[in-house]
TrEMBL record, chains A, B:
<keyword id="KW-0501">Molybdenum cofactor biosynthesis</keyword>
<feature type="region of interest" description="Disordered">
    <location>
        <begin position="119"/>
        <end position="143"/>
    </location>
</feature>
<keyword id="KW-0460">Magnesium</keyword>
<dbReference type="Pfam" id="PF03454">
    <property type="entry name" value="MoeA_C"/>
</dbReference>
<dbReference type="InterPro" id="IPR036135">
    <property type="entry name" value="MoeA_linker/N_sf"/>
</dbReference>
<dbReference type="GO" id="GO:0006777">
    <property type="term" value="P:Mo-molybdopterin cofactor biosynthetic process"/>
</dbReference>
<keyword id="KW-0479">Metal-binding</keyword>
<dbReference type="InterPro" id="IPR038987">
    <property type="entry name" value="MoeA-like"/>
</dbReference>
<comment type="similarity">
    <text>Belongs to the MoeA family.</text>
</comment>
<protein>
    <recommendedName>
        <fullName>Molybdopterin molybdenumtransferase</fullName>
        <ecNumber>2.10.1.1</ecNumber>
    </recommendedName>
</protein>
<dbReference type="InterPro" id="IPR005110">
    <property type="entry name" value="MoeA_linker/N"/>
</dbReference>
<dbReference type="InterPro" id="IPR036425">
    <property type="entry name" value="MoaB/Mog-like_dom_sf"/>
</dbReference>
<keyword id="KW-0808">Transferase</keyword>
<feature type="domain" description="MoaB/Mog">
    <location>
        <begin position="201"/>
        <end position="347"/>
    </location>
</feature>
<dbReference type="InterPro" id="IPR005111">
    <property type="entry name" value="MoeA_C_domain_IV"/>
</dbReference>
<dbReference type="InterPro" id="IPR001453">
    <property type="entry name" value="MoaB/Mog_dom"/>
</dbReference>
<dbReference type="GO" id="GO:0005829">
    <property type="term" value="C:cytosol"/>
</dbReference>
Amino acid sequence: MWSVDEHLADILEAVRPLEPIELQLHDAQGCVLVEDVMVEIALPPFDNSSMDGYAVRVADIEGADEEFPAVLTVIGDVAAGSDGLPGDRAVGPGEAARIMTGAPLPAGAEAVVPVEWTDGGTGGGPADTMRSLSDAPEGAGGEVRVHRPVEARAHVRARGSDVKPGDLALSAGSVVGPPQIGLLAAIGRSTVKVRPRPRVVVISTGSELVQPGEELTGGRIYDSNSFALTAAAKDAGAIAYRVGAVTDDADTLRATIEDQLIRADIVVTTGGVSVGAYDVVKEALSSVGDEDEPGSGIDFRRLAMQPGKPQGFGSIGPDHTPLLALPGNPVSSYISFELFVRPVIRALMGLPDVNRPTVQAVLDTDKALTSPSGRRQFLRGTYDAEAGTVTPVGGAGSHLIGALARADALIVLPEDVTSAEPGTDTEVILLR
Amino acid sequence: MWSVDEHLADILEAVRPLEPIELQLHDAQGCVLVEDVMVEIALPPFDNSSMDGYAVRVADIEGADEEFPAVLTVIGDVAAGSDGLPGDRAVGPGEAARIMTGAPLPAGAEAVVPVEWTDGGTGGGPADTMRSLSDAPEGAGGEVRVHRPVEARAHVRARGSDVKPGDLALSAGSVVGPPQIGLLAAIGRSTVKVRPRPRVVVISTGSELVQPGEELTGGRIYDSNSFALTAAAKDAGAIAYRVGAVTDDADTLRATIEDQLIRADIVVTTGGVSVGAYDVVKEALSSVGDEDEPGSGIDFRRLAMQPGKPQGFGSIGPDHTPLLALPGNPVSSYISFELFVRPVIRALMGLPDVNRPTVQAVLDTDKALTSPSGRRQFLRGTYDAEAGTVTPVGGAGSHLIGALARADALIVLPEDVTSAEPGTDTEVILLR
């Protein structure tokens, strides 16, 4: 018998993060950087205006107010995207240039006066907006009255005030989320080196399995594991492929797995790992894998847990692709996925936290929960963060998928616990 | 001036959840159900074995122990997927059938004895496994010694003990996650009716914008908004399309938006909404939209917030597609997205919680933070859940995208706060 912790440690010991690849920014979302990204340009790349207004020389507007405005000659527009005034002109004494947010401060100018502190070139009172260039092209010329003085560098964002060449933009190990993608784009990076999302192939086994939507005949049930685990793999960050249920025939299963290896970073099977006479995964995989290679081949184990006792783990094929063979009961396979496969996916991605978060909660139940001695039990529950309580949902049966769909947490009863009274402080694994 | 809350309320008031569609299970992941899903079959569909073992009549094994085992004639196998014993045979007195986990309890049998409580048909001591059918076909015949009695119905999962026809499987409003997908598949549903993911078209505007990876010439900057907001839209649950930056030309922008409407449930633009003479979004969209229709057309507003003062909101085109025109500074546009666009995406999906979670935290800073009177300020910070503190990152400048990429929270300083001392209890919006 292996403990849950021993089994997980054995798996994680064998799994190496995927080789990094260079990806376009939009493909890198959610992935882990493997390089320190250094900044190669200044941000902003040039001194620029933080307001829509007028670029001026400060001496010209000293002491200006509404009664005695400074009157300046407007010599042109500096639009965002231009590199200064037309014809490389500079702002001279008594002159101003209309400037837009983000546009470069033109030569000669020392500060920006927001349009709201001027008459906007209208000859009237304080402006609350600039007239758009297309409606009023004459706004780029004529005169402007400035109603307030500003200090040098006012409303100017200095070149490099955000980041400078040689700065560390993002360190290796960072997860690439939306703001990180924004920063990478802003410093001109169109690609980054990250560990890719693992490709997970999910195969359910069992001659009793029928695809949902088809007719259910005697002795058969609908395949649910391949659907639930494919969704869970996506949820964990993987690219997941669902392979239809395979019948209980060792040759067919072996051929299917070998076929799928080309697109698999992990193979997950469900069913056929127990002690029965038709346990096809065990039969098919005990004789597969290049046993010459250390760590190759699949090892079938009994785990000191409930549900989920029978489990297989190993590697398969020329690339030693990790394979996890999970039990076939829907609840067992889902819990096994959360405990063992999710950590593998996240380890392959190079993420630091591979496990679901856990909390302590007070057991909210009418009667004591029982648990088999020497086995770690995982019961389904609903967690109430505000009350700090967890309430069991449904019973312990590993076929109770109706209750699983109402749960958002797993209640963990340790190996040495055989009975947990109402009010007991309990470990809870959060599933959302 | 609109308050942040008024603007958001105005937006959410105008937005209706998307019309539901029938989707395959794997496409429905993360979506909200609009139907109560009722169960139409029993789960399990038939009485079945929860163990690998032998299906027996209880009277035959009464009082059995290892010394005096009950010796039964094995009359055949019941495999999972079969609908009983071959030839519709029943288990008669003195007989047993080998049975696999999940296989239907054959006629005549009353309970299942796990293989570990028998000799497994070997004639030896207690078995720890069944020999696989292919290795030992004779296991389906001969004799089995049973070492322990069981009660009627032992190790039998009763038909309908999980869910029954007429039960409510999932209620309208449920989010379809992996366990819900598992349940839907298990009850035979291959499709469900959900609200689809909204399609968000992100367009950045500005003649100064260059695509990352290209050469940066005078007065130009890299387009980062379209990258960051497309990623943020995906993160919020949307299908997001990034449209390359559009130059500051109203006709081009109008044509681009009209072109994109075919694939848009929301249009998001950045830049060109302020008071400048080149504010193309304002210019292009103030004259678009069928103003005959109530609520149509785009309204440009000033919000009592920092950053993010200028904002546009309205609907556009024949389908009255919501359009949010965000300011162009990278930090302003990102914060505006989180505050206004994310809630729209989630409202379109029919999710109950449209806003990011907020917490209270103690301000961990050396000197007081300042904030303009009458405006709600959103500063970037890092939140420490264990310590219950939040630490500002970088300054207030709306161009500081380097600091944004290191933040995981927004520090909210209310309208009436002009200074927040170290140690102040502060509202924090969690970004992860």
